[in-house]
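Board work, copied verbatim: S-adenosyl-L-methionine-dependent methyltransferase
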Amino acid sequence: MTARAASSTAVLVCQGRAAADGRYAVGRFSDPVAVRLLDPAERAVVDRVRTGAAPPGSERMAYEMVRRTGITMVPRTVAIDAAVRAHAAPQVVILGAGLDARAWRMPELADATVYEVDHPASQADKVRRAGALEPVAGRLVPVAVDLAADSLAGPLVAAGFDREVATTWVWEGVVPYLTARAVRGTVAQVAELSATGSRLVVNYQARSLFTRVMQGAMRLVWRLSRQPDPMAGEPWRSMWRPGQLRTLLQRGGFEVLSDESLLALAEGLDLPPGNEGSLRNGRILVAVLR
Ligand SMILES: C[S@@+](CC[C@H](N)C(=O)[O-])C[C@H]1O[C@@H](n2cnc3c(N)ncnc32)[C@H](O)[C@@H]1O
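↓ predict structure ↓
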């Protein structure tokens, strides 16, 4: 297990959901819990994005980052929520849960046990932030695991996870932060732990030159603006061609049911234009263990 600080990208995507709530795709997307998981200083930029008034000067970077992240979060959340609803499993495991609010906002989880797996510092930070917020999930169990170094089975089974019971696994916004080796290792462990019929919902980044160039440009702009870059401590370590990930999952015994870009999933959702590049390369794959 490697020591590190709580995830700041988990805060960023939570800010994005808080900024998008009630503004974009109303009636399809909703995350009213997100804002309650943020500390006051983190809410300030969210409030600003919600007014639509972009600040001048160096604060503009953080504003744009949260605004654009909000747009990306809408199809990502809508698609994953739909996949969770489509497979009413008694166990849901959220890998790299960050500030995911499904256990607090999805009544469909009322009969489910939700295991929120995350790196220990992020796990502790989530427990602090959630505080007295009452989950709607039947049972909520935090589990500390470093997916790059630890076995998933030991802590998960010790926390009450039942290998014989069908499970929905949610793996959202985590794959890019793991090396290809850690992704392969996690897929193998998930397959090992899953009863037949279990589903895996994975959000990943397709390999793209556009994304690499944009990331480099963003790093430079953050440096020049002398603002803290939320991605600085969490570099992307793996991007996948859709065919590569499909093959990996098939080798693990999964059948891929769908694999779509966020851009395709955004169709019919009421979103502002201008984020197509990012939406094109983010993908949601749903697979079932046969
Ligand atoms: C961008 S956040 C996504 C959080 C959440 N899934 C969401 O979509 O809101 C990335 C998450 O991956 C987790 N993560 C990154 N590397 C990890 C590792 N080696 N083991 C466990 N979790 C990890 C971080 O702690 C963080 O919660």
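The two ends are 32 Å apart (CA to CA).
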